[in-house]
Design a protein that fits this description.
Elements (H helix, E strand, L loop, with lengths): L1 E7 L11 H8 L5 E7 L5 H11 L4 E6 L1 H11 L5 E6 L5 H6 L5 H8 L2 E11 L2 E3 L2 E5 H10 L6 H12 L5 E7 L4 E6 L1 E5 L21 E6 L7 H10 L8 E6 L1 E6 L5 E3 L2 E3 L4 E16 L3
Length: 294
């Protein structure tokens, strides 16, 4: 028997979570798992709870919510032997989609009954952990406005994208790599990707791997709007990196210098982080439950 805890964020995404405890009890295999269920009460609560469960020696802690909830649980479990499970109930569900975890709650719970832990990388932007992506530019502006929109979901997200396109001014970014090389470009957006997508199957870094010890740095040209329809198609079909408007390369450690303290996002959540950001990958620092490979 293994101990597993479910940390449920009651306000993430658009789905009602009141029936989740019963669904967990009805679906989880009682011959494998002894489960605890707790609801978060404030921002940062999932970090505290997951740390407590890790100290208690729990085998797994499941983040029930969106990428923000997953980020908090990962903060509590990184560099421990407790595995993170994911029950994706947020808006974009980027990491869950990257790992092939079912989006439907019952299917994701059924997967836990035949799952296994793997080790994945996580990233740090200054002192802030990220598991999927972080970045600045247009996507960070959208993340900021989306967080303050009052409603969630794909419709709201698309609406913010369209509104923010009007009048957005690209900035020049300077990246110092750990080998001394310097990359300087004006960019529409700049994403540092541990996993492949922002969410909603929008693959900003389609070749990214959470197990290669590297991040994919994705710089979109200020002229990308000229090919906006084809760029959108490439984004959702997994070949955005082949566009002439994209410049993608890999690194494991770098310092980003920005002209001003414009919006920056960590796993889709807007943060204040300063003009200069030290971004690095921590290899194999997090255990995650995925579908068992036979």
């Amino acid at each position: 028997m293994k101990n597993i805890a479910f940390i449920i964020n009651p306000i993430s995404g658009t789905q009602n979570k009141k029936k989740l405890p019963k669904l967990i009890a009805d679906t989880l295999d009682p011959k494998q798992w002894l489960w605890n269920i707790v609801f978060t009460e404030y921002k940062g609560h999932a970090i505290e709870l997951s740390r407590q469960y890790a100290k208690m020696g729990f085998d797994a802690v499941v983040a029930v919510g969106g990428d923000g909830t997953i980020n908090e649980v990962a903060q509590g479990l990184c560099d421990t032997e407790t595995s993170m499970g994911i029950l994706p109930m947020g808006s974009g569900n980027g990491l869950a989609r990257h790992l092939g975890i079912p989006i439907r709650a019952q299917k994701a719970l059924e997967m836990l009954n035949h799952s296994e832990p793997i080790r994945i990388d996580y990233g740090m932007a200054n002192d802030r952990l990220f598991v999927s992506t972080c970045g600045t530019g247009f996507d960070a502006q959208v993340a900021y406005d989306f967080a303050n929109a009052g409603t969630r979901g794909l419709k709201t997200y698309v609406s913010r994208v369209v509104k923010d396109l009007v009048g957005y001014k690209p900035e020049t970014y300077r990246i110092e790599l750990s080998n001394g090389e310097v990359v300087e470009h004006k960019a529409f957006l700049l994403t540092f990707a541990n996993s492949s997508q922002w969410g909603y199957e929008a693959k900003i870094a389609p070749r990214a791997s959470v197990q290669d010890g590297q991040m994919d740095i994705c710089m979109m040209s200020p002229q990308a709007w000229l090919g906006a329809p084809s760029m959108a198609i490439r984004l959702f079909t997994g070949n955005l990196d082949t566009s002439l408007f994209m410049d993608t390369f890999q690194a494991d450690d770098l310092v980003l210098h920005r002209e001003s303290e414009t919006p920056f996002h960590i796993d889709g959540d807007p943060v204040r982080i300063g003009k200069d950001v030290h971004i690095r990958i921590i290899p194999d620092g997090l255990k995650v439950l995925v579908e068992k490979r036979f």
